[in-house]
Amino acid sequence: MSMEYSSRISLRPFSATDVDDVMIWGSDDRVTRTTRWKTLTSKEEALSFIKEVCIPYPWRVSICIDDRSIGFLWVINPGRSGVDGNKNEGVADIGYAIAAEYWGKGIATKALKMAIPQVFNHFPEIVKLQAFVLLENKASHRVLEKAGFVYQGSITHQVQINGNEIVVVDAVYTFLSTDNIPPSP
């Protein structure tokens, strides 16, 4: 990881004042092409995204550098995890997206490593985090592996990506509450 950013990365709840920063990464098709939400096209959409999708949920947080939002980390469906949304006791889904200018700098890995222990503390009933990532998104595979997630296999299923229903092949990664977070190099 670039030492330039390491000590300046934080996770925090979103606020309405993040709207301009959210527009930077939320309106970028390179960032949103693999997300379950539509690319943001206006400041009003960004504000609605913050107020309706992020703020009401304690584990939809902003990845920040120097307290400026450069991305999004989310934990969803505690106890109702998986591609089908069926009851899956003790499991939650985790995901992330960051501004393209910060790709390849270790920031997503650091944010994930910061989040993991906090998530297990916040949701003591959760014993497993799982992440679904497009099979072809090799950079995201590396992020998960560097954060200690273990590849479990792949699944073909229908999902909504950027507002469109499509069939995708996702790699499935998991991290157990008993796993150790690997040290940073």
TrEMBL record:
Residues covered by the N-acetyltransferase domain? 9-179
Q: Which Pfam families match?
A: Acetyltransf_3
**GO MF annotation terms:** acyltransferase activity, transferring groups other than amino-acyl groups
Where does the source fall among the domains of life? Eukaryota
Name of the featured protein? Uncharacterized protein LOC104224338
Source organism: Nicotiana sylvestris (Wood tobacco)
Q: Which gene encodes it?
A: LOC104224338
